[in-house]
């Protein structure tokens, strides 16, 4: 997307909340790979989708600096709760402080550790799952969460176009590209799922369990 069109879109959508604007800037100042932070456009998309679904229970795989969790939490139904799993234990204190001081953060429960180990320990039925963790394990994540996703529930998977590399896994045969192409193929052919890929940023896949 060209810069002037990107600027036009950002100036014609709902404003980025001030606490998220500060978080986005802090992420760029203090962290490696700040591109991993959702940002204004994708953040408003996540908030909108969550608000449309009105989930009681959200599971997020991959918290990073907490931006996407706060956006998803905006759409929670009354008494709703979001569980987020982050593998990097060095992020724990920062995330706990963020959730304790941000709007909606009191509805977020943080889990530190490997998502594949933690998923089974959370006794919930999910209305919405957001996958943005280890790209090599997307198929495995989906297989773990699907049995506990309610019928009619939704999964959102980030980075599924991977800078367009998924279109040519011969030239781009790194493990992440191959795994994301495997995930996209798996989801598209899965008999229980309906799916659409939105070419937003690095690719956002929306999945509904029939």
UniProtKB/TrEMBL annotation:
Signal peptide extent: none
Gene Ontology MF, one: S-adenosylmethionine-dependent methyltransferase activity
Assigned keywords, A-Z: Methyltransferase, S-adenosyl-L-methionine, Transferase
Superkingdom to which the source organism belongs: Bacteria
SUPFAM superfamilies associated with the record: S-adenosyl-L-methionine-dependent methyltransferases (SSF53335)
Matching Pfam families: Methyltransf_3
Entries under InterPro entries matching the protein: Cation-dep_OMT, SAM-dependent_MTases_sf, SAM_O-MeTrfase
Gene Ontology BP annotations: methylation
Protein name per its UniProtKB record: O-methyltransferase
Organism: Duncaniella dubosii
């Amino acid at each position: 997307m060209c810069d002037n069109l990107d600027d036009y879109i950002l100036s014609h959508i709902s404003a980025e909340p001030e606490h998220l604007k500060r978080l986005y800037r802090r992420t760029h100042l203090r962290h490696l790979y700040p591109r991993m932070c959702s940002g204004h456009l994708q953040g408003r998309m996540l908030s909108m989708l969550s608000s449309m679904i009105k989930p009681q229970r959200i599971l997020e795989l991959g918290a990073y600096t907490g931006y996407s969790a706060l956006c998803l939490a905006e759409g929670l139904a009354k008494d709703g709760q979001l569980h987020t799993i982050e593998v990097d234990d060095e992020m724990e204190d920062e995330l706990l402080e963020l959730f304790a001081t941000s709007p909606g953060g009191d509805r977020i429960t943080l889990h530190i550790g490997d998502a594949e180990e933690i998923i089974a320990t959370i006794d919930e039925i999910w209305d919405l799952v957001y996958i943005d963790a280890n790209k090599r394990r997307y198929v495995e994540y989906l297989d773990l969460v699907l049995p506990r996703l309610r019928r009619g529930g939704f999964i959102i998977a980030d980075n599924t176009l991977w800078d367009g590399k998924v279109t040519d896994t011969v030239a781009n045969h790194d493990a992440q590209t191959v795994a994301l192409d495997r995930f996209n193929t798996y989801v598209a052919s899965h008999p229980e799922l309906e799916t659409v890929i939105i070419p937003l940023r690095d690719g956002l896949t929306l999945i509904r369990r029939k």
